[in-house]
Amino acid sequence: MDKDEPRILDLLPQQYPFRFIDQVPLYKPGKRMQASFDPAALRTCLGGGAAIPVSVLIEGLAQTAVLLTQLETRPLGPGEMPLLGKVRASIKEQAVWDRLVYYELAPERIWQRQAVFSGSVQDEDGRPLVTATLLVAIADKGSDPK
User: Fold this and answer.
1) InterPro entries of this UniProt entry (predicted)?
2) Mind listing the pLDDT tens digit of every residue in the chain (146 residues)?
3) Residue 11, by phi and psi: left (phi above 0), alpha (psi -120 to 50) or beta?
């Protein structure tokens, strides 16, 4: 995965400080993807609380879903953007800033412009933080009003 990793991350429209994926250590086509994130550098700009906001963990899982959708179908085209349509999540534990976060995602069903995934977020010790089912879609941006 190392030689393709920068290209894979380039598929994400999000940039620092809103990109919550640093690496993609595992991608098995049609099976699963694992991505990782080191949250320590973003602590100050994300509020500086004792725990990582759960919304950051879910967004990181959604960003993993966007990557997996593009790798399983096709990259986003001009005028297209990824949308998180629905999330059903169960929060297990809080995540702390000084521990790596791992997102694990598997496709349940993939169509041309939509996909359903089941996944989880764990810390570097394998402690479950969040489990979720996500629906993502590709939408047209439309035109800017004049």
Assistant:
1) HotDog_dom_sf
2) 444 555 889 888 888 899 999 999 999 999 999 999 999 999 999 888 999 999 999 999 999 999 999 999 888 889 988 888 899 999 999 999 999 999 999 999 998 889 999 999 999 999 999 999 999 998 888 745 44
3) alpha
Place of tokens 């085209």: 77
Residue 38 CB contacts under 8 Å (≥ 6 apart), including other chains: 22, 100, 101
CATH topology of domain 2-140: Thiol Ester Dehydrase; Chain A (3.10.129)
Query: Cα(121)–Cα(128) distance, rounded to whole angstroms?
Result: 6
Long-range contact pairs involving 119-127 (C-beta distance under 8 Å, separation at least 24)? 119/61, 119/64, 119/65, 121/57, 121/58, 121/60, 121/61, 121/95, 123/95, 123/96, 123/99, 124/99, 124/100, 125/99, 127/93
How many other CB atoms are found less than 10 A from the CB of residue 85? Answer: 14
List the beta bridge partners of residue 120: 104, 131
